[in-house]
Amino acid sequence: MLEAKKVLIVDDENKIVDVVKSYLEKEGCEVFEAFDGKQALEIFKRINLDLILLDLMLPDMTGEDICKIVRKESRVPIIMLTAKIDEASIVAGLNIGADDYITKPFSPRVLMARIFAIFRRLNEEIVPLSNIISLKDDDLVVDILKKEIKKNGENVKLTITEYKLLMTLLKYPHKTFSREELINTTFRENYEGFNRTIDTHIKNLRQKIETNPKEPQYVITVYGTGYRLGGEEDEKKP
Q1: Contact in structure between 103 and 84 (CB atoms under 8 Å)
Q2: Residues 38 and 139 reside in one and the same domain
Q3: Given 125, 146, 181, which residue is the final one in a domain?
Q4: Backbone phi, then psi, for 235, in 5-degree steps?
Q5: Which of 100, 125, 150 is the last residue of a domain?
Q6: What gap in Å lies between CA 105 and CA 108, rounded to an integer?
Q7: CB of 102 within 8 A of CB of 114?
Q8: pTM above 0.85, yes or no
Q9: Is residue 61 located within the same domain as residue 168?
Q10: CATH no. for residue 36?
Q11: Percent of the chain scoring above 70 in pLDDT
Q12: Left if phi > 0, otherwise alpha if psi is -120 to 50, otherwise beta: which for 198?
């Protein structure tokens, strides 16, 4: 399950980094190391990560501050690692966007179990695409095999970029994507443009598939985060 996953370990304790890295690499992960906040953010901006293991007490900035910065751009899973065991700290960490919280000292095997659990949840969010998908009582119909889109029975002509964006949202109907995540998931290394350019593609897609682009039903803006799929989905097979 973890093969080829890119994981960032952020901790100023070399021993912890070495042990956790060893366990992750045995599962086939590509592991990145950061021993302070500055290093962590540099790696985050450069690498499309699948998971961040984040110590809260770092020499230059707090893990909470790092988490807040990451959450402005990405929904990458974050597990906080810390010696803070009080309830208030745990609740605060989860409220600012952490996906899980494990206190030090911890068992590497328990940590790995938590990591596997996070990726299982993510996999459950992925809905395999059937041949034909309809939204809101056939108001919008997507034929995967023919690569055809119909709005109220009329064919809609999408650009390749618009079509790929719609396919990504349909494939992950319960996920809210940041701009960067939407780009990376849809295009990988083949996207040319700035993150904000994706807003223009989304705007153009809405013009073609929404009844009222100013009040979208299918491509929903989650303010402060990004975009997600809207509409009541009904999967059909011929």
Answers
A1: yes
A2: no
A3: 125
A4: -85, 135
A5: 125
A6: 9
A7: yes
A8: no
A9: no
A10: 3.40.50.2300
A11: 88
A12: alpha
The letter for the amino acid at 168 is T
Which residue reads 């809207």 in tokens? Answer: 230
Are β-strands 6-10 and 154-156 bridged in parallel, bridged antiparallel, or unpaired?
unpaired
Residue 141 structural domain: 132-236
CB neighbours (10 Å) of residue 149?
Answer: 20
CATH classification at residue 148? 1.10.10.10
- Annotate 60-84 with b (16+ C-beta within 10 A) or e (fewer): eeebbebbebbbebbbbbbbbbbeb
Q: What is the DSSP letter of 152?
A: T
- Between 12-26, 84-98, 159-173, the lowest mean confidence (pLDDT) is in 84-98
Dihedral over Cα of 61, 63, 67, 70: its sign: positive
Determine the Cα–Cα distance for residues 128 and 174; give it in Å rounded to an integer.
Answer: 13
Q: Is residue 1 part of a domain?
A: no
Higher model confidence: residue 122 or residue 138?
122
List beta partners, residue 7: 31, 51
Beta-carbon count within 10 A of 20 CB = 22
Domain count, the chain: 2
